[in-house]
Amino acid sequence: MSTHKASGRITIRQLKEMKQQGEKIACLTAYDVSFAQLLDQQGVDVVLVGDSLGMVIQGLETTLPVTMDDMVYHGQAVSRGLSRALLIVDMPFMSDASVEQAVANAGRFMKQAGANMVKLEGGADQRELVSTLTRLGIPVCAHLGLQPQRVHKLGGYRVQGREDAVAEKMLEDARVLEQAGADMLLLECVPAALAKQITQQAQIPVIGIGAGVDCDGQILVLYDILGISAGKIPRFSKNYMQQAGDIAEAVKHYVDDVKHSRFPADEHSFQ
Ligand code: KIV
């Protein structure tokens, strides 16, 4: 069992109030205690231990090989650095292949890694799992739009929801998952107008990455905003180190930009 802090963290209830009051939610990924502490101190509201660690920590080509043990290890480290930010841990590929497996794995994140919420990819087909986790007291963030764990099925990393049928399905997925008990939605690489519609329809906070400025909050991969990710930084991200003296200043600048709707600009969004 890990030692972790959770008492003073932002709650789901507070995030919902922020949505109602129009206060933007600033989120970033982190994978270790030092960055977690720095993000917490710079006012990041939500920290995600994303399975993007497969790429930015492990040097893999996709998130698919990331394991439960990897996620628990990094979750524990990040949890030890957080006093204020809510902690979400990503369910890795195949960890939710059945409801039984997913319940055991999500429970492990809550018990061993100090998670306040788990994130899982998938649409309305995840309804039963989301309602089971909700019944057990495990908060869920449902990840819609581009789902990197389905990269082979999707045929590449591409914007999702440009066609009417796909957009309608995403609106319906969002509705169904909220009804099933999801406490947060995350939209990745979704046209800004569709993301706005989903955000207006939802009572729960909607966080965007490449989904336009009208979401309730924004998330980016930490190493992209620090300009140190291997490979090209995605179009929807921004290198905040270019105008900062140090990492803390870069993170603070990102948080301020999200809070004042200065990020994302049109150049970071999709039509
Ligand atoms: O794994 C991750 O870091 C994510 C973000 C891209 C939202 O899911």
Name the poorly predicted regions: none
Mean pLDDT: 96
Sheet of most strands: 8 strands, parallel, barrel
What structural class results from the helix and strand content? Answer: alpha/beta
Overall 3D shape: globular
Do you know the CATH architecture? Alpha-Beta Barrel
Q: Largest sheet, order of strands side by side?
A: 1-2-3-4-5-6-7-8
How many domain modules? 1
| Helix and strand pattern | HEHEHHEHEHEHHEHEEHH
Number of H/I helices: 11
Which strand-content bin applies to the residues? Answer: 5-15%
- Per the CATH scheme, the topology name is TIM Barrel
CATH class: Alpha Beta
Helix content: 25-40%
Total strand count, please? 8
CATH superfamily: Phosphoenolpyruvate-binding domains
- Quaternary class: single chain
Radius of gyration: 17 Å
Bound molecules: 3-methyl-2-oxobutanoic acid
Q: What is the terminal separation in angstroms?
A: 46 Å
